[in-house]
From TrEMBL:
Pfam families: Glyco_hydro_6. InterPro entries: Beta_cellobiohydrolase, Beta_cellobiohydrolase_sf, Glyco_hydro_6_CS. Its EC number is 3.2.1.-. Keywords: Carbohydrate metabolism, Cellulose degradation, Disulfide bond, Glycosidase, Hydrolase, Polysaccharide degradation, Signal. It is an enzyme of class 3 (hydrolase). The active site is at D149. This is Glucanase. One of its GO terms (molecular function) is hydrolase activity. Residues 1-27 form the signal peptide. Belongs to the glycosyl hydrolase family 6. It comes from Streptomyces werraensis. It comes from the Bacteria. PANTHER family: 1,4-BETA-D-GLUCAN CELLOBIOHYDROLASE C-RELATED (PTHR34876:SF4), PTHR34876.
Amino acid sequence: MSRRLRSLIAALCALPLAFAAAPSAHAADPTTMTSGFYVDPDSSAKRWVAANPGDGRAAAINASIANTPMARWFGSWSGTIGTATGAYVGAADQRDKLPVLVAYNIYNRDYCGGHSAGGAASPSAYANWIAQFAGGIAGRPAVVILEPDSLGDYGCMTQAQIDEREAMLTGALAEFNRQAPNTWVYMDAGNPRWADAATMARRLHEAGLRQAHGFSLNVSNYITTAENTAYGNAVNNELAARYGYTKPFVVDTSRNGNGTNGQWCNPSGRRIGTPTQKGGGAEMLLWIKTPGESDGNCGVGTGSTAGQFLPEVAYKMIYGY
């Protein structure tokens, strides 16, 4: 059956859900419109393997990391954003695969942590950027992780800054709903060690979660899938009790094979986790962070910058040492 015919059938079958208490703002299910997840042909791991074929670590990194479906992150480095997202989802669509994209450009990004500080120049600049992001995807199937860390840490922010951030996220969801009807958007909800379930449920709801398909957990972190699943269920219990709805969630399993040692920034002794798949305790287990990419100038990545691919870290993460 062709992808387009599958897409039409999936959309028609799902139409009645629009009138029920459906978990998504959209009728279509992008996972049924495609034949599996997209492997980014230009990931940092793929590029390193291609550039270092004689390196003794290359075979293991290629087999265990580079060929696993992973998200591609988009930010100020991506150039004209609508062109960038359009090209990426277009390439995936040609292969009948489902791409996972991360939008990471919110104004005052990583405001409290600082390791990944940056983002759009203003709230209005972000609104323009995210509108183009969604427009580039258009009607093709995709999954989007919306602004990792944005709701996790409010510790250094004023109420005015919090309100501003939540308004930006609500506006972003409106753009995806308007322009990208076959995209599932997951609002990032940090991880179980950041905020209690009641606090996170309130933040998600106030930032517009009802408009999103779901929420994401553990992005770029190391906490076990079991702990994240328990937390996601607790957040949903709070959402149900306070606001009368629940949402699906996904977990980043890219680096949680050994769990956490309490450190978040390039800790030693971590291991890759369950590869990208549907189910597994959450709606999906996804590799959102590329194993081997630095969290910043810290830990075993001392001297590196956030996002830089470190082959030795990647190699050791395959084996858990």
